[in-house]
Amino acid sequence: MSEWDAFAEIYDEWSADMTDDVDFYVDLAREAEGPVVELAVGTGRVAIPIAERTGKRVIGIDSSPVMLAVARERAREAGVELELREGDMRELALDEATDLVICPYRALLHLPSWKDRRQVFERVAAALRPGGRFAWNAFVFDPHVAVELDGKVDTIGEVGYRNAYFPHDNRIEIVLDSGPSVALWWVSRSEWEGLLDVAGLETEALYGWFDRRPYRGGEDSVWV
């Protein structure tokens, strides 16, 4: 059982404002050979358009069986096939090397420690062919936004939740009124660069958004 199981029914509505990334990841997939691997595939928000628009084999990995069940149904409705696997991204292991691993929608921030993130980066590096790509995005921590959102109560559909910030731990928690919660740990640019270095990867591009504008700080960093 995963903490994300409780979020599966509201995830599509929760992520509905994130649409700009789909074309970005589809374009990367068009340039890739072999399977496209998505870590934290969730309900298939990105994986399904990749399969639809490129015809490529897509392997989606997620720790939540409930999320995977939703993705499976969404893929069936879209008329595409996804290879969906329940698993922990820290234990990524592929039978064949790939040209592209993606981790959209800030999902790497759900890893609590440097050790966890390093393990993912090293597993990804081992899974990539020479010249292969690892692409992800992450928000840039803004203390002003943290002050604004800390303790804020909101709803997704009919489901209530609140945000809680813990600056001493670099942590944000999203807590449903029913009790379950998920956490994100923010990561600095220098930490991402350190992770790339220890995994033997190099930065091809760092963007400020999915339209490939130069990175100058701001809401998100988009890495390839």
Outline the structure in words:
This protein has 224 residues and is of the alpha/beta class. It is 32% helix and 27% strand. Strand 7 and strand 8 form a beta hairpin. Helix 5 crosses helix 7. The radius of gyration is 17 Å and the shape is globular. The model has no long low-confidence stretch (mean pLDDT 95).
N-to-C SSE string, H for helix and E for strand: HHEHEHEEHEHEEEEHEE
Strand content: 25-35%
Secondary structure tally: strands: 11
- Contiguous uncertain segments of 5+ residues: none
Radius of gyration over C-alpha positions, nearest whole angstrom: 17 Å
* Major sheet description: 7 strands, mixed
From the N-terminal CA to the C-terminal CA, the straight-line distance is 31 Å
Arithmetic mean pLDDT = 95
Question: Helicity level, as a percent range?
Answer: 25-40%
Structural class: alpha/beta
Question: Helical region count?
Answer: 7
Based on CA inertia axes, which overall geometry fits? Answer: globular
**Strand arrangement in the largest pleated sheet:** 3-2-1-4-5-11-10
